[in-house]
Write a structure and sequence with these properties.
Layout lengths: L4 H11 L5 H11 L6 E6 L4 H13 L4 E5 L9 H4 L7 E5 L5 H11 L3 E5 L6 E2 L9 E5 L8 H6 L2 E4 L11 H17 L9 H15 L3 H9 L1
Parallel strand pairs: 1-2, 1-6, 2-3, 4-6, 4-7, 5-7
């Protein structure tokens, strides 16, 4: 059901009647730190443990959106690793076309995101040198194959994490955590408007409420039918 801004506010008030004061206070506190300024894009990540760890990291650092590209591999979660983090996130899955990667890229570009590929490249820069002066979508690929040529051709920038040992790469879940910690720290300390808009806050709170209340569809139908 497509709802107007006012209808969403009415629905939020109604759904919150079914939520404890403690949970509502938790929502109010966490929403202040939620952001869509940085988002993660996972291309063909098929290991459930790694995928789940990345989602858990996204939630812990306040990222609201994670984009999942499924070309060769289906995205799966490990409940013991994700620990329920997925229900607090807005997960966007691309698995309906022949070139899901391109669909994801076009969608993110239309929302004003700079596309940053996390991989070594002739034009790469080190993570500490990546400026967060614009909305950023951070792409991660599989540890074995890396990111696809489609991502590499459309990327606006390439970034790599400094390394000082013999091993050539980090585990993807570790790499995501390092990158997110660095980048969120940069923009949270700045004057950049990285917080959600008022309308986005309502949308996200609705998502959270729907994740813990049963039969929300029936409540919506009674309110707006």
């Amino acid at each position: 059901m497509n709802l107007s801004k006012e209808q969403k506010k009415i629905l939020q008030e109604k759904l919150f009647e079914f939520i404890s004061d403690g949970k509502k206070n938790l929502f109010a506190n966490i929403i202040k730190y939620r952001t869509r300024y940085l988002t993660l894009v996972l291309e063909d990540i098929y290991q459930p443990q790694n995928a789940s760890a990345v989602l858990r990291t996204a939630d812990c650092f306040g990222l609201q959106d994670v984009h999942i590209i499924e070309n060769r591999n289906e995205f799966e979660l490990n409940p013991e690793v994700v620990l329920g983090a997925s229900k607090w996130l807005s997960i966007h899955r691309y698995n309906q076309s022949e070139n899901n990667t391109l669909n994801a890229i076009q969608n993110l570009k239309s929302q004003g995101y700079r596309l940053v590929a996390t991989m070594p490249h002739s034009k790469d820069i080190l993570l500490p040198d990546l400026q967060m002066d614009q909305k950023t979508a951070l792409f991660f690929g599989t540890e074995r194959l890396g990111l696809s040529k489609v991502v590499q051709e459309h990327a606006d920038a390439f970034v790599k994490i400094p390394m000082y040992g013999f091993t050539e790469s980090y585990n993807i879940s570790v790499a995501a955590a390092i990158c997110v910690q660095d980048l969120t720290s940069k923009f949270r300390k700045s004057s950049i408007p990285w917080q959600l808009t008022e309308e986005e806050e309502v949308d996200v709170k609705l998502t959270w409420a729907r994740s813990i209340i049963r039969n929300t569809e029936l409540i919506e139908q009674k309110l707006f039918s």
